[in-house]
Design a protein that fits this description.
Layout lengths: L1 E5 L3 H10 L5 E5 L2 H6 L4 E6 L2 E2 L2 E2 H7 L4 E8 L5 H4 L4 E6 L3 H17 L3 E5 L4 E5 L3 E6 L3 E5 L3 E4 L17 E4 L1
Parallel strand pairs: 1-2, 1-3, 3-6, 6-7
Antiparallel strand pairs: 4-5, 8-9, 10-11, 11-12, 12-13
């Protein structure tokens, strides 16, 4: 699972790093700008509310689609009611981070595993992608699939020549 941590305190970043399993891919960001400049789509964003002069809640209202799910990690529990939206799965207060964060991350991971997957048949493998990761399919001289993380899959390009059944097949996986 790819997890982004948007937290401006290096001390809090270190606390989070020490709590989470090394099997997760962690990316740390101190500012909203750094996070938006990253070219990744994240499964989970651990988000602080107070980010210097910026507000995490307001940021998410403007940019809800760079991550699958959000868990707020903040000392501002009075703002908890303002944080919940369709892709927000929790709120962990910083004074309870050691006891609550790992449990919440595990719940998010279980939720991700329950999402509907679609099998895409590639030449030498079947690749499974989450349905909500697909931005669009395009049929134009073949079938192309664009995923939220920027991956472009070219599945099959079939053509008929002179009434015969010969087929031309091309398969590739590209990153933008």
């Amino acid at each position: 699972m790819r997890i982004a941590i948007l937290e401006d305190s290096l001390i809090q970043q270190e606390r989070i790093r020490n709590l989470l399993d090394l099997s997760h891919r962690l990316c740390f960001f101190c500012t909203v700008e750094e996070y938006m400049e990253s070219n990744y789509y994240f499964d989970l964003l651990l988000l602080d509310i107070e980010l210097g002069s910026q507000n995490g809640i307001e940021f998410i209202k403007k940019h809800p689609d760079k991550q699958r799910f959000i868990v707020y990690v903040s000392s501002h529990s009075e703002s908890m009611a303002d944080t919940f939206d369709t892709n927000v799965l929790g709120f962990v207060t910083k004074d309870r981070i050691e006891e609550a964060l790992v449990k919440k991350v595990n719940q998010v991971e279980q939720r991700i595993h329950q999402l509907e997957k679609i099998a895409l048949n590639l030449p030498y493998e079947t690749r499974y992608v989450y349905r909500d990761d697909i931005l669009y399919f395009q049929i134009d001289n073949g079938i192309f699939v664009l995923l939220k993380d920027g991956t472009k899959l070219s599945l099959v390009n079939e053509t008929l020549k002179d009434g015969t059944t010969s087929r031309k097949r091309t398969h590739k996986i590209d990153k933008f």
